[in-house]
Prior knowledge:
Blueprint: E1 4-8, E2 11-15, H1 23-40, E3 45-50, E4 55-60, H2 68-82, H3 86-94, E5 112-117, E6 120-128, H4 133-144
Antiparallel strand pairs: 1-2, 3-4, 3-6, 5-6
Helix pairs in contact: 1-4
Amino acid sequence: MKNYKYLLLGVFFSSTSLFALTLNEAKKLAEKADAAAKKEGFAASVAVVNAEGTLLYFQRADGAPRGSVKASQAKALASASYGLDTNDAVNAIAGQKPQYAYLPDMTAVAGGVVLKEGDTVVGAIGVSGAADDQADHRAAIAAKAPDAQ
């Protein structure tokens, strides 16, 4: 993830939250999530969004359910919008924060995982296609794992 520097009114500032994820990075994340989904035994749709929730990359594996296309994108948008994994939103709604269910752009189904650099949200990944949304969540988490050296 890149750190971009901007000149605004004669003052330099840097940001890792705007356009920090590159297309190449987004594609690699999606490929890792897809590989994890295949290991779990399901065909997935994978969406990667930037910090603003704008779609950077999308892929749908052969055999992934038709509904998984929009579901993966909605999960990624929810995670980027609120800076939390959608699995955490599910748990919050089931617990003491049922109001989370009514937030705009909230998709309270596991499979959306926020991508951060330090404390800064740089994007999110959404995975959909498994019969069990916890499998979607595990595939999305696997995309964030460091590459083996």
